[in-house]
Amino acid sequence: MDLAPTKSKSSSIIDCDFHQTLKSFEDLKPYLPRVWWPRLCAPEATLPITIFKPIPLSRRDASPGKGLPPGSDPQYAIEDALNRYNISKAVLTGSLLTVSAHNNPDYAAAIASAFNDYTLDHWIPTDDRFLASILVATQDPVLAAREIDRLGSHPKVVQVLLPVGSREPFGQRRFYPIYEAAVRNNLVVAIHGGGEGDGINPPISAVGQPTTNFERHNILAIHHMSQLNSIVCEGVFETFPTLKVIFIEGGLAWVPHLMWRMDKNFRGMRNEVPWLKKKPSEYIIEHCRFTTQPIEEPDNHELIQMLSMMRAEKTVLFATDYPHWDNDSPTFVLNKLPGELRRRIAYENAAELYELNHSHVEKEGVSR
Amino acid sequence: MDLAPTKSKSSSIIDCDFHQTLKSFEDLKPYLPRVWWPRLCAPEATLPITIFKPIPLSRRDASPGKGLPPGSDPQYAIEDALNRYNISKAVLTGSLLTVSAHNNPDYAAAIASAFNDYTLDHWIPTDDRFLASILVATQDPVLAAREIDRLGSHPKVVQVLLPVGSREPFGQRRFYPIYEAAVRNNLVVAIHGGGEGDGINPPISAVGQPTTNFERHNILAIHHMSQLNSIVCEGVFETFPTLKVIFIEGGLAWVPHLMWRMDKNFRGMRNEVPWLKKKPSEYIIEHCRFTTQPIEEPDNHELIQMLSMMRAEKTVLFATDYPHWDNDSPTFVLNKLPGELRRRIAYENAAELYELNHSHVEKEGVSR
């Protein structure tokens, strides 16, 4: 991480992973049915809490003061991140991402819904650069689809956000109401880290729970891999040909391996998936996007090779993960990249994914 | 797969994954306590059977005839693979690899033990080129260690074989009796595909069971990743500094991603693992080895780049996976590689790992 401000004002940046959070669970009360209020007073019953959680999760220097959590004050976050790094747009990816790991699907849906209202009321009006995600709990995809239809037409909403942790892979048919609603509302589907190994979900590692948060964090991307593999294999992109899926906070360097393995196996086992009309890697490059943070940090020539293998000029988008402890500054990531690739990753790929009008954004940048 | 014979007689090859199997479970009876015999007559109770299993698992053309399973007749396998491909040594990796997924640890240990006796009696004497693994069931590591001590001094035994599927990651302390016994007997520890998602083990994918064998096979390597990550993070290589671990049938191209992610996180979280004295990638390159099959098949220059990223000149070993359906011939794999790297992967890395005397092997090759 490098906290130096971005050098050039001319280089536009879209941040695809910017975390807003609550000052406290009290913030949800205006949007939450009273039947659920008692849970807000009992932290152990509010949401599944991972025993592996890094302490602290967020940068202490990103706190707005007065003992408030980092990312809980829009004005502070605007100064501390958007202005400091000259960010053109920031997609809010929220918090409460263990919501899909809760045992109660009705409560989980109500919490996600209340958080969405809180975001639209308390964050979106504070700065034109913020864009919103609709957080949904995946335990009940029909309730999730209802939430998407409730808020999907809001002009600042650009995507549906699914925490990656799940008991069932997202390619399976019971999740189709979510994709139908996303497509109906012209929204991207975002799959973001959260809920792995918590609550009702399977263990973090494929062979049981790890021992340390270090071990946990190293292996988290297997959940992104499993979801991507399921979505492609089940033919979700044949059923929903306009759907785009963005994988957030899963890292990047596993993508070539999975694409290659899927393509190899497709040659030997395509008779099992007759609904697939092209190679798995073609669906991935056309329909899937991946954000940079936490970007792997090998020698730079190896990073560039890996990015080339995954067609990063089309598939990779910049993200800070502000204000989490391991967030990346734009300079740290983008200075590693050659010019044209830097422009694609910093701005163009996200602008195309979210259908943002380039000149409009740049004008806003100038007027601010 | 390319079935053409290996061109040059001079290029020595060690095959690190050669599967022998039983003609039928009856073959185990001479080595198995009578109390377990009734299970051998009831296929559904013998070993966990994966519903995802490819049908057939093995190449039909590798059957010795008379309706016998491929890999069940040493003489046929010697002609069909060792002689055809001019293989100098073949490490037998057996079958019954769901043994660690069985609910009963005593039965599982007895089955593994019987299979080892069968291998040493029926396969090892048939050809000097065969080397043996000791299959152990990991449910009870103390019983596993006893089995390693029982057979570990046999001159043809080169390694202990653990199926990768497990309820607990292999770095955890309850597995240390296995590593102690392996080191005591100067044996490599091999972790081989098998038991993922079967019986008592967690699901195949990190987010629940997949739908097709295609989807299953694409994601299997997350079990290898999880075990490697656990073993390094827990400091197994600090506790057992002479231990070597070979990861078989997990593919290769995921290794750079995991090494890079571990090294990055080590910079931020090494306070959680004070027993680690160097970067995770250094332990991996020094102590871990990976076999080629099922090798990923991107454009060749991308494969060479990926192999360079994982220091393949030291870490990668050739394997056929004979006689399974997706086995690789030496020509198919080795012809992709430049000369020096080909020699390392085809022969040298395995000869060093298993401490095989090069000139001794070549002499055997000539006298045959």
TrEMBL record, chains A, B:
The record's keywords, sorted A to Z, are: Lyase
Superkingdom, taxonomy of origin: Bacteria
InterPro entries reported for this sequence: ACMSD, Amidohydro-rel, Metal_Hydrolase
Key word DNA repair present in the record?
Answer: no
What are the GO cellular component annotations? cytoplasm
User: What GO biological process term is on the record, naming one?
Assistant: secondary metabolic process
Transmembrane parts of this sequence: none
Name all Amidohydrolase-related domain ranges: 14-356
Record-level Gene Ontology MF annotations: carboxy-lyase activity; hydrolase activity
Cited PANTHER family? 2-AMINO-3-CARBOXYLMUCONATE-6-SEMIALDEHYDE DECARBOXYLASE (PTHR21240), ISO-OROTATE DECARBOXYLASE (EUROFUNG) (PTHR21240:SF28)
Protein name as catalogued: Amidohydrolase-related domain-containing protein
